[in-house]
Amino acid sequence: MTPPISTPPVRPSHRTTPLTEGETRAALRAIHRLLVVARGMAYDRSDPAALADILDAAEVLPQSLLRPAEFEDLFRPTLDALAGRFPALRGIHDEFVKAAE
Predict the structure, then answer these.
(1) Is the Cβ–Cβ distance between 34 and 89 less than 8 Å?
(2) Using CA atoms, how far apart are residues 54 and 82, in angstroms rounded to an integer?
């Protein structure tokens, strides 16, 4: 069994400004792409624990779009952790980072 995705501790953000349109679009695209990869893994009968970790991340990420401080604390660190653990997800991470700048 694989350990769950964990993100490194970060200093809590105090951001209160809403996400920009670019950040929102980049985040929604990243979530969409995570779900597409997960679906492909399910069709390929990949490791259920790995699939569960990706889907667990995809489940909590949308909530952070409504909370700017949580977005900064959770969204990118979660993508960082997923990309570090699953090389197939690095492109999703890199595209998000570039688009959210």
Answers:
(1) yes
(2) 7
3-state secondary structure of 74: helix
Within 10 Å of residue 87's Cβ, how many Cβ atoms?
Answer: 8
Instruction: Say if residues 61 and 27 touch (Cβ distance below 8 Å).
Output: yes
Give pLDDT tens digits for 71-98: 988 999 999 999 999 999 999 999 999 9
**What residues contact 10, with CB distance under 8 A and at least 6 apart?**
73, 77
**91, 16 Cβ separation under 8 angstroms:** no
Orientation of helix 90-100 relative to helix 76-85, angle to 10°: 150
Query: In the 8-state DSSP scheme, what is residue 44?
Result: T
Q: Residue 58 has which token pair? A: 């995809």
